[in-house]
Write a structure and sequence with these properties.
Chain lengths: 825, 825
């Protein structure tokens, strides 16, 4: 299937009465089928008088927004056909599901997608019955709905999704309907500013339609209750040219308001075409893109009054206006009148097929919005051209001999990714791309910026075109990236670890979308949503407690295991290997947490690749095991800072408790810890037991909240031996080592943990235990008097690693060696 | 300490040159001390030439926003003194910590609060040294900072906090500085609309100052780079009257720009006074409140160019402009020049005390913004007058004999709370108060609404004054409530369970704030943040999968145990008892998840109170235990839907496996499951083992993600016997029973779990197991053909509960009986 061609034509001026009649017919048909879906089990065309048995026992769904969505859809259909304009329809009020299903059915796409929903009486019966019905389809514009990239379950993201879809699709028009309820949300309120990040020459166009139907669930809406001059000022302030359109509040004939709206749509689309022409001719000024304010009654065309209460043009029309349609004859009668008001006999022929004249309104093939391939982005996805990440490997003569800022080197790799994929890969970030040290990418690209420039901007890497998209809104970054991915492109979101929680609920929605699309055969896999979380909990040096929260991982692992991957690369080469893997994947949410501060390089690239492929491994070079014998204790680690503390603890133990057999295990793919029955990456019990033993104490130094390790390993045989250290919500603006001490994750405390947990050590090593306490005190006192960590602590890595390796008899540079089974793609 | 009195005076016109000089002195002093805090260890007044030893080894903090914050503070100080206007300063760019600390020090509050930070050379040395220093204070406007209710760690909530503080404080002016970085966030973008929810007669005033310094961390800001006409349109669109003020970009003298800003401030404050007067006189129109756009250079007054790169008026001034001040003589020299540019010798006397003339700028006592008692809300908190929740008890002749919508009855209780506390209690919700069935409160109050009214609004419970605050923005609800609580008032946030994740990151920030304030003696406890999460995962009937997420509990339990409480009341009386408890508490985050659909009443009020006091308990009436003998299996439950399924399963087991000794345990206070060493509510091991046994299989039906139960109980002896059923991310728009079946939480599956886990049952009860599978199939088939659940499933509760109780020989209506120790306040 190819992308539809497009031309940004001006209107052709064919707005005759016949066309207007067709638009009205389409609208009535869509409204009729929407009401039908909400209420009817059978008798979809009212071939017989309506009885209670035709009505669903549970009436679930939302009528209020639907007629407005259908109105817009009908009009766009006309315009698209005339202009051959590839158009994607983003339904902000996604609970208007019946409307979008109805339109897809009218366009024929629904039947092509679901052949049992035929274009006849029986197909109509199935269509109406399945909606919000057990075993049927959900009530929203869900993945099941052809033409949708936006379910609209949680409100707020219609515009950011729309802009994400428009980026790098210069021929695509994205019409985004924003409900006036949604417009009150924070994410939506800032997403209007997306127009400062859109390049009119190389991106597509977003046409926002703010649908003011005046009410949300139980209240009027803010934007419907401010003066027109305020509303227009707001839209101008957002950088748009607003066009206010009002219909449905008086006796104006449908022919009249349809004509007015069709004319407005032609004006707006002509204006858009003019802007595109101008941009193509080199005009670099920021366009004041048109947008439409559409004021209609909520529940437009439903019974004005039900049970003596105003329903049309009221919040009462939000969900199901006739709640007792099955149980009271009065409601049943009103329902039948309501359905018949659309004159179904004019809309469908004797076999139940849409009237041919009305059907002629629709464009053909992929120009139908419900069949636009951008809404099934996997169809259009091309693999990224990836450079060989090994080319960016850092040289590791031995563990800890050198150090790098891992994300800075990743930036070099990403520079190549940008160069090789000049129009299908973007990096999103809330003003943190450089802070997270990816600034090498500016060698290859700029930050897209379509607001004003100053002469002093010369060296700031701002440009009308750019692969980096930065706005101080995590919501925008997430929403744009989602829209970009769902339309088949690639990208990553680089963010401070703590503040990625801002998009927790968006991740939920995206994970749910992916979970469902994986179960729908016609939905093709899309590129994964890749996070790079840096400036993490242990190194938020400038900020402190408010910026410390490693809990995003906890949040994400509640989602379906098939969809979620979590990686904690601890050095530069493992980060490179991990990210290469993520960028190749599909349909996942990949969470990568990585440090930006200089940290010890531990594995050569070959070792890193092997380690990442296994996801975890025993580091013989760092331990003091004797081949063939079980270790006395396992020191496990996940994350860059915990890994260094574990290595330091192993070094201390080697020096002070030479007879102790210590095994060091590093976990880079966190999901390996889970049971293979719980997660596709999960280790078998046999492998887990081999690595962690079933009886030795395991001291696990973990990057985040310690309980997560228990949650992941509770089924394991040796679980009760696992003792986890991690972030326990203690922090402030202080030194890196003080941070780990505040949370008992430091090397000295890990040694104490070993003494306390390995049988027999406590009695023999009381002095060492005290010494470790003293070392903690000394470290803290030094820090508090000097304002920095002891140099010996900062500079620990190389000599200790070397000593470890020498003592173990394992050549420096030898990585993990235990092979493990299972799929960790 | 009493609230300062206020009068909304017009200006007194005393803007003479002397005052202007004082303002400039204050500003220089605040700037000087801010730079000092970022850089200096010692030599705070440059009594000797600056050397590297005077400079901190780690330079942490943010200069960029600070001089602007100081500028505003200095000017407000002048105006407050003249007008005796109680004023709270909300610092959106909270990383401007050094500025707020400096001002609190200049006002004397800092020394009053921390007596070792004296008003002399030594005090100054301590002041500058402690900032961002181990063992010192954090870099932000943290709880440690007098006068702060807003740390500004995560950006976006300055205005919603400010409005929350202003609600019901009619004499309070809240000046909220919004950074232009913050202004890009979603929550901030919608929070401008808060003015539609503020009553000018009975609430205080928020004066937003949008501080455009042009840059964020590494980029220009959107609002600084749109045309003035767009920016002003935006502010007018938000309902404000904007005043644009520009300074610092040219050679204008400080005397000149100070005079201009002082005059502007007088104009604005006079306009506010006029609006207040007008409102007091009965004018009900919505005021177009003034707001100020303050354009200054970022890092204003720092070295214009450092290392050949523009620094002042650039993003490079964001954090620490002279990163190598300690390590390069050039930077050290520039730093000394920079410090001396403020002419410290004019600002402080020979002993290090602030020049008396400058000091005279400040108002006295609680009129000092750093001493405003609203910023330490616990000082002003009055206990809620609570009605007796028992008056709203529902009659429970026997478990399951009746049913109620729990939240609807809670609404009746809240109605009384509203009546008894007409100005200190509010209910916040994102348009879901009625959907969550609390609408009884409209008998006592209305929804506050200060946007336009229509004649048709008569029965919609909208009013200029109202205790219910609804906007479709969870961010706004959370932010307003936080502001309201932190200034010492009470409230709750009613929200759909799934969408409370929208505020995950805000909860993090609030939990961190509470955690730290609990460690600060002068911070007094504030009322708890109470959630009522309804329309929960099992009963999002109209919406389905996108609206199903019970993971907020998982998120919250990562925060400090002292701060977090989680309750899962399963019926009306337990909900009433729980909520009464929450409304009395302080300094907690209380998460209450409760159903809104009709559900079986199980406990009488006396039983409910006893059960809630224990937090969990054995229900003898529902089990088939024999006194004195251990049970064969424990059926545990938490949450309304799981509780009913467990009771049904117990009933099935009683019928089909009569010899099985089943214990039924219900958990209402989830934190009881945790170890007493982990959580203040945690059960002792002894109590836990008594209730759950150490060897019997425990089938635990839990409301949310099943892993949470493992995370809470992993230390328990019998943990490996616990088998949890819960929501595993399977759902759609379907029937309630289909939902529990999709997640294997249904009664039939629980019976299968018992057969599979109790030794010996599997071999003997293969036929029952198959029968349960058949029942699942029958239930599903019925649902898919009829669109509703089998009536016998819906109507199960009463006969089954009666049968259970009769069989157990325990009188109906007898609740939990095992006493447990521990504090679960």
């Amino acid at each position: 299937m190819a992308t539809p061609t497009s031309a940004w034509h001006r209107g052709s001026g064919t707005l005759n009465d016949e066309t207007i009649t067709r638009i009205d017919g389409w609208w009535r048909a869509a409204n009729y089928l929407s009401v039908g879906q909400i209420y009817l089990l059978a008798n979809p065309l009212l071939r017989e008088p309506l009885t209670r048995d035709h009505v669903k026992p549970r009436l679930l769904g939302h009528w209020g927004t639907t007629p407005g969505l259908n109105f817009i859809y009908a009009h766009l259909t006309r315009a698209i056909r005339e202009r051959s304009q590839s158009t994607l329809y983003v339904t902000g009020p996604g609970h208007g599901g019946p409307g979008l299903v109805a339109n897809a059915y009218l366009e024929g796409t629904y039947t092509e997608t679901y052949p049992d929903i035929t274009q006849d009486d029986e197909g109509l019966r199935r269509l109406v019955r399945q909606f919000s019905f057990p075993g049927g389809i959900p009530s929203h514009v869900a993945p099941e709905t052809p033409g949708s990239i936006h379910e609209g379950g949680e409100l707020g993201y219609a515009l950011s999704h729309a802009y994400g879809a428009a980026f790098d699709n210069p021929d695509l028009l994205v019409v985004a309907v924003v409900g006036d309820g949604e417009a009150e949300t924070g994410p939506l309120a800032t997403s209007w500013h997306s127009n400062k990040f859109l390049n009119p020459a190389t991106d597509g166009v977003v046409l926002p339609i703010l649908h003011l139907n005046g009410y949300k669930i139980a209240n009027p809406t803010v934007l419907a209750r401010i003066d027109d001059d305020e509303l227009e000022a707001l839209m101008r302030g957002y950088g748009h040219t607003p066009h206010v359109f009002v219909a449905g509040f008086d006796d104006e004939t449908p022919a009249s308001f349809h004509r007015r709206f069709a004319e407005l749509l032609d004006t707006v689309l002509d204006d858009i075409a003019a802007i595109k022409e101008s941009a193509a001719a080199g005009d670099e000024s920021r366009p004041r893109w048109p947008m439409i304010v559409l004021r209609t009654p909520k529940g437009w065309t439903c019974p004005p009054v039900i049970d003596g209460k105003r329903t049309e043009d009221s919040w009462r029309a939000h969900q199901v206006p006739l709640a007792s349609a099955r149980d009271t004859p009065e409601h049943l009668e009103v329902l039948e009148e309501w359905l018949r008001s659309y004159r179904p006999e004019e809309l469908f022929d004797a076999t139940g097929r849409l009237d041919a004249d009305i059907a002629a309104l629709a464009p053909e093939g992929t120009l139908r919005m419900s069949a636009n391939p951008h809404a099934n982005g996997g169809l259009l996805t091309q693999d990224l051209r990836l450079p060989d990440f090994r080319d960016h490997a850092v040289d590791v003569p031995a563990p800890g001999a050198t150090s790098h800022e891992a994300t800075r080197v990743l930036g070099e790799f990403l520079t190549d990714v940008v160069r090789l994929n000049p129009s299908t890969f973007r990096i999103f970030g809330p003003d943190e791309t450089a802070s997270n040290r990816l600034q090498a990418v500016y060698k290859a690209t700029d930050k897209v910026w379509n607001a004003a420039y100053l002469p002093t901007d010369d060296d700031d890497h701002l440009a009308r075109r750019g692969r980096v998209v930065e706005m101080l809104s995590e919501h925008q970054c997430q929403g744009w990236l989602e829209g970009y991915l769902l339309t088949g492109r690639h990208g990553l979101f680089s963010c401070y670890e703590a503040f990625i929680h801002i998009v927790d609920s968006m991740v939920n929605q995206h994970a749910k979308w992916l979970k469902v699309t994986r179960e729908i055969p016609w939905r093709r896999p899309v590129p994964s949503l890749n996070y790079l979380l840096s400036s993490h909990v242990w190194r938020q040096d400038h900020n402190g407690f408010s910026h410390q929260d490693p809990g995003f991982v906890d949040h994400v692992v509640n989602k379906k295991a098939e969809v979620v991957r979590v990686y904690l690369p601890f050095d530069t080469n493992t980060l490179l290997s991990t990210y290469d893997h993520c960028l190749r994947s599909r349909d996942y949410i990949n969470v990568v947490v990585a440090g930006k501060q200089p940290t010890a390089d531990l594995l050569t690239m070959d070792e890193a690749v092997a380690h990442c492929k296994r996801g975890l491994g025993i580091w013989e070079w760092a331990g003091t095991e004797v081949a063939g014998e079980d270790p006395d204790v396992v020191l496990a680690c996940a994350g860059d800072v915990p890994t260094l503390e574990v290595l330091a603890a192993a070094d201390l133990l080697r020096q002070h408790v030479p007879e102790l057999r210590v095994r060091v295990v590093n976990v880079v793919d966190l999901m390996r810890l889970q049971d293979e029955r719980e997660h596709p990456h999960g280790l078998s019990d046999r492998d887990f037991d081999t690595i962690f033993t079933t009886d030795a104490p395991v001291i696990f130094a973990y990057h985040g909240y310690p309980w997560l390790i228990h949650r992941l390993t509770y089924r394991r045989k040796g679980h009760s031996n696992i003792h986890v250290r991690g972030y326990k919500e203690e922090g402030t603006t202080t030194t890196p080592f003080d941070m780990v001490m505040l949370n008992d994750l430091d090397r000295f405390h890990l040694v104490i943990d070993v003494i306390d947990r390995v049988e027999g050590l406590g009695s023999r090593y009381g002095a060492l235990r005290q010494h470790m306490q003293d070392e903690r005190l000394r470290a803290r006192q030094y820090t508090r008097s000097h304002g920095e960590d002891l140099r010996e602590i900062r500079d620990w890595v190389w000599p200790a690693a070397a000593a470890l390796a020498e003592a173990s008899g394992t050549p420096l540079g030898t990585g993990a060696a235990v092979e493990t089974g299972g799929d960790n793609e």
